[in-house]
């Protein structure tokens, strides 16, 4: 069966069923301990798991609370066979936050890994650990054979840096379109193996599961980012692609030292915000194939990516929109000129249909067919995207715009600075002024040295008014810097 169009309904044979039929013996998931699961086995496990949760699932959505594992992947695919949307919960949140998100997303049942079972006792919802469900007897039920592409497949919450986190709707069509557009951009090789060290409860991680099944490609799955395990996988386990953010990329380059990755490793997909120029230059020196990308939960992962052919020529760019996507820069709802900074707006089949039951947020975010990302950037004369910063992180000091990422880049260019974060504090004279927080590799670096370095490289109003040394900076589960938490 292919794609069906019937009375406005678009259907496609279930992707995992199709993949298990096409390449049953190919590896779907590989773990660092050597354990593997074929597509046929993944299909079998998912169908069995679906028949076991059928009896305990009530009306409403299912929440998933787990770190990366085969069980998590099996449970997710099981829910798709029941046409039950999965709401992914961030394991780093508190029970109070999980409860709020479950209420906001109409969750009635929670499925979790065994390590979180005790934590779920604080919820007012029924929660079942993977091991409990494995012990159930299968129940006879009807599993779907084909997918309605317009139905909700999953939901994830925005980070909530500008207010209460919002549940983002992700349809099957969103996921399908994202996977296909990515393949058209990055290409698809017969030997591809994608390393997943980002959490599966984030879109950067979950999107790899879809790519695996749709492409017929193995995933090398790690529970979390571990630079030694990632390094070993890149060196010895035939991994060809890995998804990273700036800080994890930096740690991998340090681990690589004077070595080189195998020639089969073809792509370090770098997302999660603007990449500091010193990091990109360091990667260039080491011949690491970094491909910058731009995307978000609302776009089901990447929506713009820099082709390898332009990587060195357009250092720092996130590239051009993927084949089925459109992107503009707008200032006051008017298309910006080349090199003019404004809000990044996007549209395309991978873009969410909206936030779940957030009518006001949808009115604000969707205008004239465009989704307003809240991110700032510009397009150069050739149409290449350069992401500047989050609009909510913009510092306005005495009427001048200060982009934290620009200041952070200068701080990171000073030898000995490992991490940098810049945010605003209120100021009676200027309204806001920038302050910086840094992590250094040794105690030899002083505040006076760093501030002098900033004065050389930046306009005076951009130079941090205070600089603090920290052992670490606040980051979310994908290691993205959380600037709103810096001062705390």
TrEMBL record:
Ranges in a coiled coil: none
InterPro entries reported for this sequence: AMP-bd_C (IPR025110), AMP-bd_C_sf (IPR045851), AMP-binding_CS (IPR020845), AMP-dep_synth/lig_dom (IPR000873), ANL_N_sf (IPR042099), MenE (IPR010192)
Pathway, per record: Quinol/quinone metabolism; 1,4-dihydroxy-2-naphthoate biosynthesis; 1,4-dihydroxy-2-naphthoate from chorismate: step 5/7; Quinol/quinone metabolism; menaquinone biosynthesis
Highest taxon of source: Bacteria
Boundaries of every AMP-binding enzyme C-terminal domain copy: 406-480
Keyword presence, ATP-binding: yes
Gene3D superfamilies: 3.30.300.30, N-terminal domain of ligase-like
Transmembrane segments: none
UniProt similarity note: Belongs to the ATP-dependent AMP-binding enzyme family. MenE subfamily.
Species in which this protein is naturally found: Gracilibacillus orientalis
Catalytically driven reaction(s): 2-succinylbenzoate + ATP + CoA = 2-succinylbenzoyl-CoA + AMP + diphosphate
Domain AMP-dependent synthetase/ligase: 18-356
Gene Ontology annotations of biological process type: fatty acid metabolic process; menaquinone biosynthetic process
SUPFAM superfamilies assigned: Acetyl-CoA synthetase-like (SSF56801)
Sorted UniProt keywords: ATP-binding, Ligase, Menaquinone biosynthesis, Nucleotide-binding
UniProt-recorded name of the protein: 2-succinylbenzoate--CoA ligase
Record EC number: 6.2.1.26
HAMAP family: MenE
GO molecular function: ATP binding; medium-chain fatty acid-CoA ligase activity; o-succinylbenzoate-CoA ligase activity
Function: Converts 2-succinylbenzoate (OSB) to 2-succinylbenzoyl-CoA (OSB-CoA).
CDD domains found in the cross-reference section: OSB_CoA_lg
């Amino acid at each position: 069966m292919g794609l069906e169009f019937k009375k406005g309904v678009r259907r496609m044979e279930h992707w995992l069923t199709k993949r298990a039929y096409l390449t049953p013996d190919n590896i779907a998931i590989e773990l660092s301990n050597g354990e593997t699961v074929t597509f046929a086995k993944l299909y079998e496990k998912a169908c069995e798991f679906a028949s076991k949760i059928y009896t305990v699932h009530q009306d409403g959505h299912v929440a998933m609370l787990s770190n990366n594992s085969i069980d998590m992947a099996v449970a997710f695919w099981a829910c798709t066979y029941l046409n039950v949307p999965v709401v992914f919960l961030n394991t780093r949140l508190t029970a109070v936050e999980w409860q709020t998100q479950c209420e906001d997303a109409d969750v009635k049942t929670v499925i979790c890994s065994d390590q979180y079972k005790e934590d779920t006792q604080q919820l007012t919802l029924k929660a079942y650990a993977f091991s409990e469900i494995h012990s159930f007897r299968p129940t006879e039920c009807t599993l779907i054979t084909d997918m309605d592409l317009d139905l909700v497949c999953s939901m994830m919450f925005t980070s909530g840096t500008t207010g209460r986190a919002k549940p983002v709707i992700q349809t099957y069509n969103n996921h399908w379109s994202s996977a296909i557009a990515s393949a058209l951009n990055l290409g698809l090789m017969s030997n591809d193996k994608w390393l997943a060290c980002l959490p599966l409860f984030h879109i950067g991680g979950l999107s790899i599961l879809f790519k695996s099944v749709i492409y017929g490609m193995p995933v090398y799955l790690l529970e979390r980012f571990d630079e030694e395990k990632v390094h070993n996988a890149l060196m010895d386990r035939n991994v060809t692609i890995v998804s990273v953010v700036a800080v994890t990329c930096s740690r991998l380059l340090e681990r690589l030292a004077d070595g080189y990755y195998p020639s089969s490793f073809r792509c370090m997909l770098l997302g999660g915000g603007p990449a500091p120029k010193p990091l990109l230059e360091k990667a260039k020196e080491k011949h690491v194939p970094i491909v910058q990308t731009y995307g978000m939960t609302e776009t089901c992962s990447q929506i713009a990516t820099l082709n390898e052919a332009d990587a060195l020529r357009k250092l720092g760019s996130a590239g051009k929109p993927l084949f089925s996507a459109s992107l503009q820069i707008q200032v006051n709802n008017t298309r910006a000129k080349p090199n003019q900074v404004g809000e990044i707006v996007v549209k395309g089949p991978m873009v969410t249909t909206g936030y779940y039951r957030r009518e006001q947020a949808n009115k604000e975010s969707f205008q004239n067919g465009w989704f307003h990302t809240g991110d700032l950037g510009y397009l150069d004369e050739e149409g290449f995207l350069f992401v500047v910063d989050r609009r909510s992180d913009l510092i306005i000091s005495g009427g001048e715009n200060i982009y934290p990422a620009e200041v952070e880049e200068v701080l990171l260019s000073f030898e000995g600075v490992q991490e940098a974060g810049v945010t605003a504090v209120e100021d009676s004279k200027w309204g806001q002024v920038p302050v910086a927080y840094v992590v250094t590799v040794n105690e030899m670096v002083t505040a006076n040295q760093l501030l002098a370095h900033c004065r050389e490289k930046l306009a005076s109003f951009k130079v941090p008014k205070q600089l603090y040394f920290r052992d670490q900076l606040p980051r979310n589960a994908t290691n993205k810097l959380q600037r709103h938490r810096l001062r705390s």
